[in-house]
Amino acid sequence: MTDGALARLRERIDALPPLREVVAEAFPARKSLGQHFLFDLNLTDKIARTARRPGASAEAPLEGETVVEVGPGPGGLTRSLLKAGAYVVAVEKDLRATEVLAPLVAAADGRLTLVTADALSADWTALAPAGASICANLPYNVGTPLIVDWLSGPWLPWWASATVMVQREVADRIVATPGGGDYGRLAVLTGARAHATSVFDVSPAAFVPPPKVWSSVVRIDPKPADDVPLKALERVTAAAFGQRRKMLRSSLKSLTQDPEGLLAAAGLEPTERAERIPVTDFIRLAKVWQEREGG
Ligand code: SAM
Which of 47, 120, 225, 260 is least surrounded, with the fewest CB atoms within 10 Å of its CB? Predict the structure, then answer.
């Protein structure tokens, strides 16, 4: 897109009615869909910038990128993504979005595709070209299942990075390291397949209506290589964290008749507890379990 074309697109978007007006008239928030909207375009611009690739220009940080957004709602973050130069594929469950976002679709002039669908059953590879980025203010009730789904697919995944706003408590569980109470299955899955960083926190006051809890924007970048036995890792972490306070020789009894032999073969102390085991050790344990038990 030329500088002039991007400038005109930004002018068209800036000429749209303010989000507060759009919501008051046609999109009152529905609790059942986890609707908490962002009206502060400085904040949505900041979230959009967080999704950029290394080396992207400051003027048009998402120039030429395809970005998948889950839950555009009235379109605050969508406006920022478009103004940053992205093509946007927006997946929204609320049928009211079709009418409410029609002026933004028109202003975007072919750069915004709205798909009315449930993101939990979306066929992502049919919706987005390989190498697309994800950027979304995720609805609280579906945030974790979506992230788990994205991290559990065939590798390399269809997405190049995921920049998502989630409850801060979920962000803490995504980026947790061994030794703390937040470290569990989600951190192991994330660490096995990606690098994740919690980039900044957002106060409840930034949303309309305000949620009860703080949120965080997390950026997840897939690791390129993958020799992770994912199914085995799921089984091993389910057993280990299912009884997280117990020693592994005890918690792994649900997985194998010989936990001590399995742990010895993986080079782990039988007296260790799940919350102290680094991701690399969990991957080794999963591989050894798979070899020994054909899991
Ligand atoms: N992006 C807007 C913003 O930042 O102001 C809205 C974010 S709001 C937290 C979450 C959005 O996700 C809502 O628009 C809601 O309707 C939508 N949503 C909820 N569940 C969904 C689902 N299963 N699939 C797709 N969209 C969903």
Answer: 225
Domains (ranges, CATH) in the chain? Answer: 3-222 (3.40.50.150), 230-293 (1.10.8.100)
> CA nearest 62: which of 90, 93, 85, 39?
85
From 128, 131, 124, select the one nearest 152 (Cα to Cα).
Answer: 124
Determine whether the shortest distance from the Cβ of 139 to ligand 1 is under 6 A.
yes
Closest C-alpha residue for ligand 1 atom 1: 72
Candidate of 33, 88, 95, 115 to mutate for ligand 1, largest count of ligand atoms within 8 Å of Cβ: 33
- Tell me the pLDDT of the chain (295 aa) as tens digits: 788 999 999 999 999 999 999 999 999 999 999 999 999 999 999 999 999 999 999 999 999 999 999 999 999 999 999 999 999 999 999 999 999 999 999 999 999 999 999 999 999 999 999 999 999 999 988 999 999 999 998 898 999 999 999 999 999 999 999 998 999 999 999 999 999 999 999 999 999 999 999 999 999 999 987 789 999 999 999 999 999 889 999 999 999 999 999 999 999 999 999 999 999 999 999 999 999 987 5
Strand-pairing partners, residue 197, are: 219
